[in-house]
Amino acid sequence: MDRRSFLVGTSGFVVSQLLIGCNGKNQIQLNVQLLKGSIPPQVVNQFHKSLQSEVKSKFVPIDQIYDLFRKLQTWQQPKTDNQEVWKRYIPFNQSQTTSKSDLVTLGDYWLKAAIEQKLIQPLQTEKIKQWPVLEQKWQQLVTRDKQGNVNPQGQVWGAPYRWGNTVIVYNREKFQKLDWQPKDWSDLWRSELRSHISLLNHPREIIGLVLKKLGQSYNTENLDQIPSLEAELKALNQQVKFYDSTTYLEPLITGDTWLAVGWSNDVIPLLSRYPKLTAVIPQSGTAIWADLWVSPAGVDKRALASQWIDFCWQPNIAKKIAVLTKTNSPIAKNIVAADIQKQLENLLLTNPEVFDKSEFLLPLSPAATKQYESLFIKMKNAS
Question: Where do the coiled-coil regions begin and end (predicted)?
Fold first, then answer.
């Protein structure tokens, strides 16, 4: 399940793993369910040591953003007698699966749905000391109205703690016989790459990169206003070997494709294992994704939750999260080349000019969303 898929089907229970806990349920003061791998254990341990001795915390890693979203949904479903009887036979700690957490990781792309479905509640930014330090671009991302749309008069619904990009990754060996290497979206249309590309199976990402190539925004509402868009999409489709959002990197490793478009959190772990692969952030700008802390609806707004968010935003901690999880930080400004593996420098050392050209995938109107989906289907079916 990729970070930008949205499904509302049923999901099985995920057995939680306890990282830091305590003896006795009543002693737990902070319960966090986080995306697995998005916070280093060293950071959790450091936070735990910074707390008063009588305060306890529990951090539970969950494999997928989708599982975390489903937990938010499950916590808001009314309990029925049948559910209560059935749960008696679950062969693990019931409270661990049903009790709400104080904070949960959620991807920014899921934020609108979580707000619309009343799964989360606004954060109390007045209790988060580091909030004013956060740059406007990040504050604007999480300031939304009750329909989940970006609105400067809205409330703050999330706290970003790491982010990444949609990137181009390619097999350098395949480009040795060519006199160029990919640097921007426009390179995807070069004749040498015909039938050698894999793209994400995602309308917003793919139509968005074409819009970016044309000097437009990822968040363009009316696609009919871009007269050359359909022709560009048809030409790009001729370059594509297949569309996929989960296994799109495997053919690149085996040499069946030469280039792929993917998310940096998928791509980065492969770069050290497969030296023949290189990744670049397109110079004309790209899409940005972010992982956020959100507060489930109905939980008490504990001061310790705000303290954890503050802790993650301390410059030295933000740097540690970014470096150890190989992502970017909305806070850290003191990351230098010596902190990062050589092959990751161009991905993790933020280029301000490219960052300013890059965009979050913001909510679109239902009509615009349908237009993107229809046009994407038409693109893939074009001969």
Answer: 219-246
Amino acid at 337: A
Tell me whether residue 239 is in a domain.
Answer: yes
N-terminal to C-terminal alpha carbon distance within the chain: 29
Do residues 174 and 273 both lie within one domain? yes
Q: What is the pTM of this model?
A: 0.86
H or E segment to which residue 135 belongs: none
CATH classification at residue 60 = 3.40.190.10
> Mutual orientation of helices 303-312 and 41-50 as an angle, nearest 10°?
130
Mean pLDDT of the chain: 88
Longest pairwise C-alpha distance within the chain = 69
Q: What are phi and psi of 4, to 5 degrees?
A: -115, 25
Instruction: List the domain range (segments joined by +) for residue 371.
Output: 165-287+363-381
Instruction: Give the H or E element holding residue 375.
Output: helix 366-381
Give residues with Cβ within 8 angstroms of 152, minimum separation 6: 140, 143
Q: Would the pLDDT of 16 be above 60? A: no
Asked if the model's pLDDT at residue 35 lies above 70, the reply is yes
Which of helix, strand or coil describes residue 208? helix
In a domain, 121, yes or no: yes
In this predicted structure, the answer to whether residue 36 has a pLDDT above a threshold of 70 is yes
Note whether 372 and 231 are same-domain residues.
yes
Looking at the fold, whether 156 and 296 belong to one and the same domain comes out as: yes
Q: Residues 212-268: pLDDT tens digits?
A: 999 999 999 999 999 999 999 999 999 999 999 999 999 999 999 999 999 999 999
Q: Of 245, 343, 327, nearest to 288 (Cα)?
A: 327
Q: Are 360 and 288 in contact (CB under 8 A)?
A: yes
Rounded to whole angstroms, what are the CA distances from 366 to 2, 221, 335, 369? 22, 10, 40, 5
Q: Is residue 358 part of a domain?
A: no
On whether both 153 and 111 belong to a single domain, the answer is: yes
Assigned domain for 113 exists: yes
